[in-house]
Amino acid sequence: MNLTSTYRLAQSAYSKRLHKQAITTATRFSSSNDKHHKPTTFATQCATLYHPSTKANRGLAPPIYFGSTFTLDDADHGARLHDKKEAAFTDDDGFVYSRWGSPTNEACARQIAALEGVNEHGGTMLFGSGMSGITSALMSVLKAGDHAVFPYTVYGGTHEFLKEFAVHWNVEIDFIDGAGAQGPEAYRAAFRENTKVVYCETPANPTCRITDLKGVGRVVDEHFGTRASNPNRPWVMVDSTFSTPYHQRTLNVPGIDVSIHSCTKYLGGHSDILAGSVSSNSPEFCHGLAKVQKLITAPLNPMDSYLLMRGIRTLDVRMQRHGENALKVAQMLEDHPLVDKTFYPGLPSHPDNTGGRDCLVANAFRSGRDYDEDVDTMPQTYGGMIAFVVKGEGDVALERAKRVCEGLRVVNLAVSLGSVESLVEHPASMTHAMIPREDRLAGGLDDGLIRISVGIERASDLVEDLKTSLDRVMESEAEQNAA
Ligand SMILES: *Cc1c(COP(=O)(O)O)cnc(C)c1O
């Protein structure tokens, strides 16, 4: 073998592994007469991407692949990838351009698809926020002249999107009370010939009322037929951000098409990213959603995809601890003399906790169980979200609630939820202060209502913190009255 053929072999192997290997050997080619050698000029070296050597892929943690574009084998490869660009996941043929999907985003999406029980026909897509996922899902199926049904208790941002955008795009919206045993019939009563979306959010914010998803799937099938029998059947979507797939595997419920999460909350779990996921077993739905993502909303970026994957790795233990802590906090609140009402699905006072293994609450909180027999060995928990109302009318309750929030030392005063640290918020003076009082009350947001996202701190610290703050408000009022 002469030197030239050795060189040619080396060069072809080199170009095949371009994306895997360090380009540290540019000088090796510079002595060649070949006109296509890699130049060693300074400006070109600056612009060139250098990669680690081949065993880098054995790092236990997955790499974060930044980059908007990917090198192609040849023009045919590029043509092939353009044909496949609206699939939920790539195959081993690779990536072409990050707006159509990229490796770290896809790794994370595959993990969420596994948690959701997505089958081989479906997929999961990740977005830059929960709202981005929700609006993408709605935009992918709703057209002018269509009708959609939503619960009154839908997330504020979703409500705003419907009022500020969807209605101006000539989409008709009906709001219904979807909670509890009567919920499915309330949905059925709202159905019309042009209904294209049936939307649920469960557990509801902030009352944690449960929607009977099995019932909703059933009434949609009864009224419109199954998807196989009626391609115009509405898409049934569920936002189950509060429960996560640890409690609710929405796509396993017959008749439910789409599962949505704000991954900013429990799935991410650390208050450090914004993200949203949308999952479905329908290739038709995934195709439409991929189009919206590609053209309008864009996929979740690589860094946040990595952080989301990292958060999900502890989801199981975090959710168990959130639930154990929240039950203790809820029990203290329910017994406290300054508290009028406590909303927590784990309390027997919750309207959907009618007892037994088949009540709405028991069905909505799977508690990470895999097999039937796990019911006997794995503890039942009910998530980390609690709402409670302090006693008093109007401004009295408003003042008390503010002071309870401000007197906390362990629990943080901040909106959002689902993180390892506990958060508390007072809707009447914070997130919902701009809404007229009557409208707020009609929506169940009392002046004295406080929402807690119970974190994974030591339970006794949380119970003590809340109890001390409530006690102090009572004591200072008693002192004022005595003076
Ligand atoms: C937070 C939240 C959203 C919106 O998610 P973002 O990530 O903030 O855009 C949607 N639905 C529910 C139930 C939420 O709690």
Task: Classify the fold: give the CATH topology of the largest domain.
Answer: Aspartate Aminotransferase, domain 2
**Largest sheet entry:** 7 strands, mixed
The overall pLDDT, averaged over residues, is 91
Number of domains: 3
Under CATH, the homologous superfamily of the largest domain reads: Type I PLP-dependent aspartate aminotransferase-like (Major domain)
- Return the CATH class of the largest domain: Alpha Beta
Annotated CATH architecture of the largest domain: 3-Layer(aba) Sandwich
With strands numbered from the N-terminus, the spatial order across the biggest sheet is 1-7-6-5-4-2-3
Structural class: alpha/beta
The CA-CA distance between the termini, in Å, is 104 Å
Ions, cofactors and other bound molecules: pyridoxal-5'-phosphate
SS elements, strand count: 12
Helical run tally: 18
Helix and strand pattern: HHHHHEHEHEHEHEHEEHHHEHHEHEEHEH
Helical proportion? 25-40%
Give the oligomeric state.
single chain
Query: Strand portion, in percent?
Result: 5-15%
Radius of gyration computed on alpha carbons: 27 Å
